[in-house]
Amino acid sequence: MALKYKRVLLKLSGESLAGKAGHGIDFDTVLEICKPIKEIVDMGAEVAIVVGGGNFWRGRSSGKMDRTRADHMGMLATVINALGVADGLEQLGLDVRVQTAIAMQEVAEPYIRNRAVRHLEKGRVVVFGCGTGNPFFSTDTGAALRAAEIEADVILKATMVDGVYDSDPKKNPDAKKYDTLSYMDVLNQNLGVMDMTAASFCKDRNIPFLVFSIEDPHNIVRAVSGEKVGTLVQ
User: Using CA atoms, how far apart are residues 227 and 66, in angstroms rounded to an integer?
Assistant: First the structure.
């Protein structure tokens, strides 16, 4: 298989790491997601990963709690996930570095853009934790920011649905799936595929965004190879 995209930013939701339990980390599930990541690295792809934290903490559901503190808790949740993914990848023989946007040098490297790029050039997988490192910004925006900084060819957004629909396919059996969309479609129709900050950021920097289902982890290989999978937003 040939690569369509050489340097990719893979966005993994926290929920995708939880398996059937729906919360926490299920390591069997993590390993199944890590196997196709190893496959694309072996094919020659340079892979950076941004992880969400929704399997441990959802800041927006925290009621009367201070939003900044809630978001900081969410960032710590992403570090737990980043370490879990790194461990899974290392078990498969990959060289991995975890970088966090909030300094915690006993646990991970601090995020330094040039160092991250150097790791990628040397064939290492870089896992980014803590989103952007700022409250009020989602890990989708973190993924968009890191993709721009490392000059990724595409953002691969691995979700629990197989693409972007005109309405919620779980609630509406007649929901229509899109194969391709423009960023203006996403923004104007408020399609909810990513938050508006991330969508406008990707639009301004012309970064394509491919949304697909992680329920079949091999979709990661299909996506990087340019096979028709999910919805491409560009």
Answer: 44
DSSP secondary structure code for residue 218 in this structure: T
Q: Position 44: which residue type?
A: G
Q: Are 224 and 5 in contact (CB under 8 A)?
A: yes
Collapse the DSSP code of 214 into the 3-class scheme (helix H, G, I; strand E, B; otherwise coil) and give the result.
coil
pLDDT value, residue 86: 98
List CB contacts of 191: < 8 A, sequence separation 6 or more.
164, 166, 181, 185
Continuous H helices in 92-233:
113-121, 139-150, 183-189, 196-205, 219-224
Q: Which of 64-68, 85-89, 180-184 has the weakest average pLDDT? A: 64-68
Q: What is the CA radius of gyration of the chain?
A: 16
In this structure, the number of other CB atoms found within 10 A of the CB of residue 135 comes to 16
Q: Is the pLDDT of residue 198 over 60?
A: yes
Q: What is the pLDDT of residues 138-170, one digit of tens each?
A: 999 999 999 999 999 999 999 988 998 988 888
How far apart CA 42 and CA 138 sit, in angstroms, is 31
